[in-house]
Backbone:
């Protein structure tokens, strides 16, 4: 609607001119009031009090003095008359400008009314208003999209930076694993030895280390049926391996502690073999294996060949009425 848009711009320009003329009229009317007030304040100086004053002083004014007074009086009258004339002329000019601007405002008012009528014919003004509203909404949507686009760009830059850092960390981790290849190889060998002592040479256990973008993957497995008992023994072998490696390198304690839950679901033969393995390894490494175990599970392991007598430390903790720990009953 380019025609209506041009009309709207013309209407805005005319309205702006009318407001500017009103502002000028306000200033001119203020000046006019000042000039009217100044013209009413003009008064000729009264010098009659001088003769009275000299008379009271017994001073007789000579003709020369009186002539001087007449000249001064005439001079002041001329100044006052000139100022009155100037104020009248300036007042007339201001009144004329006010009248001319009033006529200009009337002309512009008619022009504005004509433009508004043209815009309003056939609902054009309503259409223009509706289009302006739609334009405002579209501009707001555009600004929102720009903000979202900038946020997406920032997020994408951050994502790329994070991905770059992850790759750098992965490479650094891989280099670290390469530098520790002797240590990881020894850990893998120990894990295989411990697992085969529990399940025999027919199984294929392995321990592998692999650098990932977000973490270091440590994969442990014993090639068996995948039951809960096998999974628990995988944890047992890994803990035993980690404890031995850490102790040998002076970075770990000289003991390993397990809770009885580790042996839940484990076959009695593996429980017996695990306790025997832990006892032998701890003895060879100069370490200690500590495990909390129910007495019935210990009896089952004992029935499969493990002798706990050399390893049980007094006092025994029981759930009998006279049992307890460090003087406390439970």
Residues:
């Amino acid at each position: 609607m380019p025609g209506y848009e041009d009309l709207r711009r013309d209407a805005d320009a005319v309205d702006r001119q009318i407001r500017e003329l009103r502002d000028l009229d306000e200033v001119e009317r203020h000046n006019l009031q000042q000039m009217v007030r100044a013209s009413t304040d003009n008064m000729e100086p009264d010098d009659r009090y001088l003769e009275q004053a000299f008379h009271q002083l017994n001073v007789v004014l000579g003709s020369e003095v009186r002539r001087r007074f007449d000249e001064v009086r005439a001079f002041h009258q001329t100044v006052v008359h000139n100022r009155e004339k100037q104020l009248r002329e300036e007042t007339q000019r201001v009144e004329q400008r006010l009248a001319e601007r009033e006529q200009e405002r009337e002309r512009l008012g008619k022009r504005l009314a004509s433009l508004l009528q043209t815009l309003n014919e056939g609902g054009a003004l309503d259409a223009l208003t509706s289009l302006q509203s739609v334009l405002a909404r579209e501009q707001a949507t555009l600004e929102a999209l720009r903000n979202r686009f900038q946020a997406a760009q920032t997020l994408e830059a951050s994502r790329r930076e994070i991905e770059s850092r992850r790759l750098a960390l992965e490479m650094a981790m891989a280099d670290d694993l390469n530098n520790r290849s002797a240590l990881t190889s020894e850990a893998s060998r120990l894990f295989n030895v411990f697992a085969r002592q529990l399940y025999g040479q027919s199984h294929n256990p392995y321990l592998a280390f692999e650098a990932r973008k977000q973490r270091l993957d440590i994969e442990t497995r014993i090639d068996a049926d995948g039951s809960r008992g096998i999974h628990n023994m995988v944890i047992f072998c890994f803990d035993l391996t980690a404890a031995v490696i850490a102790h040998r390198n002076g970075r770990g304690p000289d003991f390993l502690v397990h809770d009885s839950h580790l042996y839940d679901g484990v076959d009695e033969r593996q429980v017996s073999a695990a306790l025997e393995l832990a006892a032998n390894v701890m003895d060879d490494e100069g370490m200690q294996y500590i495990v909390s175990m129910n007495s019935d599970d210990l009896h089952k392991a004992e029935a499969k060949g493990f002798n706990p007598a050399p390893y049980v430390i007094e006092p025994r903790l029981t759930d009998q009425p006279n049992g307890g720990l460090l003087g406390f009953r439970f």
